[in-house]
Structure formats: structure tokens, C-alpha cells
Amino acid sequence: MSTTSPLTSAPPTLAAALNDCEIQLEYASLRTPPHCPLGMYVLPSPGDIRTWQCVIFVRQGYYASLTARFLLLLPTTYPSHGSRPEIFFHTDVFHPLIDPSSGKFNLAKEFREWVPRKNYIFQVLHYIKRSFKHALLSTLSEKDAFNREALRMYRLQTPLFARLASQSASLSISPSSLYDRDHPRLTGSVSRLRGKEDSFSFGKLGREEEEWGRRRVGLPVEGGKAEGKGEGEREEKAEGRGKGGGDAF
After folding, report:
1. What does the chain look like in DSSP terms, one character per residue?
2. Residue with more model confidence, 156 or 178
3. Chain-centre distance for alpha carbon 202
4. What is the pLDDT of residue 228?
5. 225-226 and 221-222 as β-strands: parallel, antiparallel, unpaired?
6. Taking a C-beta distance cutoff of 8 angstroms, is the pair 248, 39 a contact?
7. Among 194, 179, 183, 187, which residue's Cα sits nearest to residue 48?
8. Range 20-40 average pLDDT
9. Is pLDDT above 80 for 18?
10. CA–centroid distance for 73 within its chain
């Protein structure tokens, strides 16, 4: 007698298979300039095409030097009508669109209703990048904000907001933030990530790796030592392969 469950042995439905193919095509399209924003790297979780792990490097503005990891989750019905993706930031960021307790990022301002063949994942990625810039921050209303205190501060106490945004950026590149794989948002708040390996991990660069990296991007290496680092340069390395739009805004 066969012990194989009919649920595990049955082939997926044609609709589900076609949906997965569309997601794979969307991921592959990130190689097409300018689909993947500069300064962002994206990689699906092993064995789950609907869970994408991402990193964004911010170079300018209030959040200059921010290094933030986030999850992009696709509903089981994606890309059908109304199946808007969800975004959860692992990194703690003081931002009007990011819920300070869950890390959830509000996409509703830009994507009130998800429309297939009109809305695509690359548009979500570009919106996330724009959200760290003054041009978009200045258009937000209270109904858009998951962190209303951050929005009120941005409007009424901009210098204080700038300091707290800069503090978020500084903390994001601290060892405890970069190397912490036990953050509650990584291990518990999003059930689909539980028990999964983090696609992106950071580690300190050795001397030879740093020198190689500096030569690769055209930075000087003098006397066997790399010269002082400019604004926003990293002493860390990001491991993991994914589609990326470069490492600078």
C-alpha cells in the first residue's frame, strides 16, 4: 500500500502553476534596466517564490547610510485582482510609512487597489526607494501613515525628524543590527519566514577582501591599506545572490 499522501502527490493546479510562472518572470525582469532600483538587492527565499528577501542601501537625504532588510510577501492569489503584496521591514526604521511595532510598510497610498498587468513588483520596489526621499515624504497624509508621530514630526519639527531618521540610519549599520539573526521580526512576527534561512547575511570584511572591493570599484589602496572611507561606504559584506540594482543611489 502506498503511504504517499494524495495532497503531496497531486500536481498543482494549472492556475497556480501559471501564477508561479508569472512571479518567476517578474523576478527575472529585474535584470532589465531600470526595473530593479539602484541600491536594492532582491532574492526569493529558498523553496518559496512568494517570499522575497530584500536589502536597500540609502545614500542620500534624511536616511543617508541606512542599510535596511525587508520582506516582500506575495499572497497565494497573486497576481490576481486585489492581491497587493505586503512589505515588512526587519530593520527598525523611524519612518511615517513603517509600523514601529510590526515593521509593516504601507503601500496603500501608491497602490490603493492592485490591478494585474498594470501593477508589478518592480513598481513596489521603486516606491519603497522613493519613500526615503523628501519629494514623497512631503506628499503623505495622516491616513497614509502607519507611524503618525513620525509624520507629525516631519511636518512640524523637521530638524528633530532629521536627527531621528539619521539615528535610524546609524543604528542600521551597527554590528547588533547587521549581524543579528535573532531579531523578533526575523524569527516570529511573519509566520512565513519561520524556520527559513535568511537569504542575505552580513559579515565583516577581512583586509584582503576590503582591498579587493576597493580596487573593484576604483577606490585607492595605499601601502597595503585602504584609505579612509567616504560617506556611506561599508566595512561589511553582504552574502547571498540576488537581482540587484547596484549599490548606490
Report:
1. -----HHHHSPPPHHHHHHHHHHHHHHHHTTSTTSSPTTEEEEEETTEEEEEEEEEE--SGGGTT-EEEEEEE--TTTTSTT---EEEESS----TTB-TTT-EEP-TTT-SS--TTT--HHHHHHHHHHTTSHHHHTT--GGG-SSHHHHHHHHH-HHHHHHHHHHHHHHHTSHHHHS-S--HHHHTSSGGGTTPPPS-EEEEPPHHHHHHHHHHTT--EETTEEPPP-TT--SEEEES--EE--S--
2. 156
3. 14
4. 43
5. antiparallel
6. yes
7. 194
8. 93
9. yes
10. 11
Of the given ranges (37-41, 94-98, 162-166, 223-227), which has the lowest mean pLDDT? 223-227
All three cell numbers of 13: 493546479
HSE, side-chain direction, 13 A CA sphere, residue 34: 6
Question: Phi/psi zone of residue 238: left (φ > 0), alpha (ψ -120 to 50 degrees), beta?
Answer: beta
